[in-house]
Amino acid sequence: MPHIVVTDAPEVTDIAVISDGLDQFNVDISGIADRRPLAVLVKDPETRKTLGGVTGRTSLGLLFLDVFFLPEAMRGSGIGSQVLQMAEAEGRRRGCRAAVLYTISFQAPEFYKKHGWREFGAIPCDPPGTSRIFLTKDLLPSA
Protein backbone atom coordinates (compact mmCIF):
# COMPACT_ATOMS: atom_id res chain seq x y z
CA MET A 1 0.00 0.00 0.00
CA PRO A 2 1.46 3.44 -0.90
CA HIS A 3 2.33 5.90 1.85
CA ILE A 4 0.49 9.24 1.42
CA VAL A 5 2.15 12.41 2.72
CA VAL A 6 0.82 15.97 3.07
CA THR A 7 3.58 18.59 2.96
CA ASP A 8 4.16 22.28 2.46
CA ALA A 9 7.72 21.61 1.32
CA PRO A 10 7.70 19.19 -1.62
CA GLU A 11 11.04 18.43 -3.24
CA VAL A 12 11.62 19.67 -6.79
CA THR A 13 11.80 16.02 -7.83
CA ASP A 14 8.39 15.34 -6.25
CA ILE A 15 6.80 18.15 -8.26
CA ALA A 16 8.53 16.92 -11.43
CA VAL A 17 7.12 13.40 -11.00
CA ILE A 18 3.58 14.78 -10.84
CA SER A 19 4.00 17.38 -13.59
CA ASP A 20 5.85 15.04 -15.95
CA GLY A 21 3.38 12.23 -15.27
CA LEU A 22 0.39 14.41 -16.13
CA ASP A 23 2.19 15.79 -19.18
CA GLN A 24 2.88 12.25 -20.44
CA PHE A 25 -0.75 11.26 -19.83
CA ASN A 26 -1.87 14.27 -21.90
CA VAL A 27 0.56 13.37 -24.70
CA ASP A 28 -0.63 9.75 -24.68
CA ILE A 29 -4.28 10.82 -25.02
CA SER A 30 -3.92 13.84 -27.34
CA GLY A 31 -0.89 12.85 -29.38
CA ILE A 32 0.41 16.41 -28.89
CA ALA A 33 3.67 17.05 -27.03
CA ASP A 34 3.79 20.84 -26.98
CA ARG A 35 3.96 21.80 -23.27
CA ARG A 36 6.60 24.50 -22.83
CA PRO A 37 7.37 26.97 -20.07
CA LEU A 38 7.18 30.67 -20.90
CA ALA A 39 8.62 33.69 -19.12
CA VAL A 40 8.86 37.35 -20.03
CA LEU A 41 11.43 38.84 -17.68
CA VAL A 42 12.09 42.47 -16.78
CA LYS A 43 15.80 42.80 -15.98
CA ASP A 44 17.94 45.55 -14.54
CA PRO A 45 20.12 46.74 -17.44
CA GLU A 46 23.26 47.03 -15.27
CA THR A 47 23.08 44.05 -12.92
CA ARG A 48 20.98 41.82 -15.23
CA LYS A 49 19.01 40.89 -12.09
CA THR A 50 15.37 39.97 -12.68
CA LEU A 51 13.10 42.67 -11.29
CA GLY A 52 9.75 41.21 -12.33
CA GLY A 53 7.80 39.78 -15.25
CA VAL A 54 5.39 36.99 -15.99
CA THR A 55 5.73 33.21 -15.92
CA GLY A 56 3.45 30.59 -17.39
CA ARG A 57 3.31 27.89 -20.01
CA THR A 58 1.76 26.88 -23.29
CA SER A 59 0.04 23.55 -23.82
CA LEU A 60 -2.57 22.07 -26.13
CA GLY A 61 -3.33 25.39 -27.82
CA LEU A 62 -3.64 27.45 -24.63
CA LEU A 63 -1.41 30.06 -23.03
CA PHE A 64 -1.55 29.91 -19.23
CA LEU A 65 -0.23 32.90 -17.29
CA ASP A 66 0.59 31.84 -13.74
CA VAL A 67 2.43 34.63 -11.91
CA PHE A 68 2.83 38.30 -12.96
CA PHE A 69 4.70 40.76 -10.75
CA LEU A 70 6.26 44.18 -11.18
CA PRO A 71 7.76 46.30 -8.41
CA GLU A 72 5.54 49.19 -7.39
CA ALA A 73 7.83 51.79 -9.00
CA MET A 74 7.28 50.18 -12.43
CA ARG A 75 3.49 49.96 -12.25
CA GLY A 76 1.67 52.42 -14.49
CA SER A 77 4.78 52.97 -16.62
CA GLY A 78 3.65 50.83 -19.57
CA ILE A 79 6.14 48.05 -18.80
CA GLY A 80 3.37 45.75 -17.57
CA SER A 81 1.41 46.27 -20.79
CA GLN A 82 4.53 45.51 -22.81
CA VAL A 83 5.24 42.33 -20.81
CA LEU A 84 1.64 41.15 -21.23
CA GLN A 85 1.65 41.87 -24.97
CA MET A 86 4.94 40.01 -25.38
CA ALA A 87 3.56 36.96 -23.54
CA GLU A 88 0.42 37.00 -25.70
CA ALA A 89 2.52 37.36 -28.88
CA GLU A 90 4.67 34.38 -27.87
CA GLY A 91 1.53 32.37 -27.19
CA ARG A 92 0.28 33.20 -30.69
CA ARG A 93 3.68 32.31 -32.17
CA ARG A 94 3.40 28.92 -30.45
CA GLY A 95 -0.04 28.37 -32.00
CA CYS A 96 -2.22 29.13 -28.97
CA ARG A 97 -5.85 29.97 -29.71
CA ALA A 98 -6.64 31.42 -26.29
CA ALA A 99 -5.09 32.47 -23.00
CA VAL A 100 -6.21 31.89 -19.41
CA LEU A 101 -5.21 33.34 -16.05
CA TYR A 102 -6.56 34.19 -12.64
CA THR A 103 -5.93 37.22 -10.51
CA ILE A 104 -7.29 38.37 -7.16
CA SER A 105 -9.83 41.19 -6.96
CA PHE A 106 -7.29 43.40 -5.11
CA GLN A 107 -4.58 42.70 -7.69
CA ALA A 108 -5.12 43.58 -11.35
CA PRO A 109 -8.43 42.48 -12.94
CA GLU A 110 -8.96 45.91 -14.53
CA PHE A 111 -5.45 45.86 -16.01
CA TYR A 112 -6.25 42.65 -17.88
CA LYS A 113 -9.72 43.82 -18.94
CA LYS A 114 -8.13 46.99 -20.37
CA HIS A 115 -6.05 44.65 -22.57
CA GLY A 116 -9.01 42.72 -23.95
CA TRP A 117 -9.28 39.94 -21.37
CA ARG A 118 -12.78 38.98 -20.25
CA GLU A 119 -13.92 37.56 -16.94
CA PHE A 120 -15.51 34.12 -17.05
CA GLY A 121 -15.77 33.37 -13.36
CA ALA A 122 -15.10 34.47 -9.81
CA ILE A 123 -14.74 32.49 -6.59
CA PRO A 124 -14.86 34.15 -3.16
CA CYS A 125 -11.70 33.80 -1.08
CA ASP A 126 -10.12 35.44 1.95
CA PRO A 127 -10.13 38.10 3.22
CA PRO A 128 -13.94 38.44 3.15
CA GLY A 129 -15.11 40.44 0.15
CA THR A 130 -12.19 39.23 -1.98
CA SER A 131 -12.47 36.94 -5.02
CA ARG A 132 -10.25 35.02 -7.40
CA ILE A 133 -11.15 36.37 -10.83
CA PHE A 134 -10.71 34.04 -13.82
CA LEU A 135 -10.04 35.68 -17.18
CA THR A 136 -9.53 34.57 -20.77
CA LYS A 137 -8.53 36.16 -24.06
CA ASP A 138 -8.95 34.97 -27.64
CA LEU A 139 -5.52 34.98 -29.30
CA LEU A 140 -6.71 34.25 -32.84
CA PRO A 141 -6.58 37.14 -35.29
CA SER A 142 -9.90 38.93 -35.82
CA ALA A 143 -11.65 37.93 -39.02
TrEMBL record:
Domain N-acetyltransferase residue range list: 4-140
Domain of life: Bacteria
Protein name according to UniProt: GNAT family N-acetyltransferase
